[in-house]
Amino acid sequence: MASKSRIAICLLRNDLRLHDNEALSWAFKNADFVVPLYCFDPRHYKGTWHFNLPKTGSHRLKFLLESVSDLRNSLRLKGSNLIVRVGKPEVIVPELVKTLSDVQNLVFHEEVTYEELKVEKALNHSGIDVKTFWGHTLYHKSDLSFSVNNLPDVYTQFRKSVEAKCPVRKIIDVDDVKPVPEGLEEGQIPTMEDLGVKSVPVDPRGALNFKGGETVALDRLNHYLWETDKVATYKETRNGMIGADYSTKFSIWLAHGCISPRKIYWEIKRYEQERTANQSTYWVIFELLWRDYFRYVALKYGNQIFYEGGVQNKRIPWKQDKAMFEAWKDGRTGVPYVDANMREMAATGFMSNRGRQNVASFLTKDLKLDWRMGAEWFESLLIDHDVTSNYGNWLYSAGIGNDPREDRKFNMVKQGLDYDPDGEYVRLWVPELEKIKDGSVHHVWTLPNSVLSRAEVSLGETYPNPIVIAPEWSRHTNKKSGRNQGPPQKQNKGMDFYFKGSQKH
């Protein structure tokens, strides 16, 4: 009598790729039929936890839909398919088990935060053997030189330890692809409207317009390294504001798992051997380490990363002023550098590292608003939203996270003059000020009425008066405009791969 066929379900979440996918690789090696499964969980398309903002906005959902479609195409080319369902994974998986009858294993990559862990806990009671893998970081959890409970609370200590003592594992091949069981309905990929999300048109001012998916992610890696050699000047250009290539932009594919951090690492190592190794090539890896760090911080502190007092459990009298928050999120604060960044994010789903640091500092240090309002707005809009990087960096910016320097605060006018000295970026995103042709656009409220009149600007009508003016800004409003006012202030380092609040993110 012939033995039953072995079937494995591989639940895919933030790992939408074929390369370096240990869960998928294990399933293909240990089953006769494999069901690669992606569930559009309806909980992801409702409101955020505290302030009921749209949890998944148009830009991120568009990218996700493209990523899912790309993975389906890649699997089809190899004789498999991606099974798509709309529903909660802990409901869909048991339904598939019941339908298929011969399912022996459920495999997936582990997550570390509350909502994902709740799903995993429910799946562990699905009645079949569950096998999990660690697959989202550059350095594997099992290879750390310390237990997660002893994770250093300062990034530099973490970085030095892993760089000195931990190996980076080789990329896992995904081959010997197995087919899906016969007769299993593949399921349609839903539209935005199906999920209750209104589509937002592409803004022509945005330089990204990148598509989701592993195919584009690998093309981007090849472009940034081998086609343009941009990686060799990354450290010098990463604080840019306009264009596609001033930074890697890898964060948007990393967040969805369209590319693995190990793939980036080993490709850079090959680039260093074949072309050049310098501070810039190292700095991309440095940024990947920030991404690792915040995932391990979330693993260590659990739900505390979402608490008002952060991992430091500080009592800070945060405000929840709705009018101030609306001005911030809509780019109507009257502070042009802040407004330009917020408008770019709303229009494109992306904001530069430099911008993220500044708008986060402005919200928490100048407006003194609850940092969670900002974190949830980023969660809604950013294409590259990664829960551990987002919340870890917001804690960092708010002074209740892993920043060894207390009370770090960015000077909005100085930052604008340093990184957008001629005001080009502000004029791009704040067209009301387009006739103010030099760096004085960063402190438009100080300009004489005669200048404003010639520029057709009426503060309070054409463009808002600032909702707050920090006293330290005055040191930079009476100098010659349109010229950098000296070297940028020393900044915290962090990840271009999410929000360098850490210098990002």
Automatic annotation (TrEMBL):
NCBIfam families: crypto_DASH (TIGR02765). It comes from the Eukaryota. May have a photoreceptor function. One of its GO terms (biological process) is photoreactive repair. Belongs to the DNA photolyase class-1 family. The keyword Ribosomal protein does not apply. Keywords: Chromophore, FAD, Flavoprotein, Lyase. Residues 474-505 are annotated as: Disordered. Pfam families: DNA_photolyase (PF00875), FAD_binding_7 (PF03441). The keyword Lyase applies. This is Cryptochrome DASH. Gene3D superfamilies: 1.25.40.80, DNA Cyclobutane Dipyrimidine Photolyase, subunit A, domain 3, HUPs. GO terms for molecular function: damaged DNA binding; deoxyribodipyrimidine photo-lyase activity; FAD binding. It comes from Mytilus edulis (Blue mussel). Its cofactor is (6R)-5,10-methylene-5,6,7,8-tetrahydrofolate; FAD. Binds 1 5,10-methenyltetrahydrofolate (MTHF) per subunit. Binds 1 FAD per subunit. Residues 6-138 form the Photolyase/cryptochrome alpha/beta domain. FAD binds at Y234, S247, T248, K249, F250, S251, D384, H385, D386.
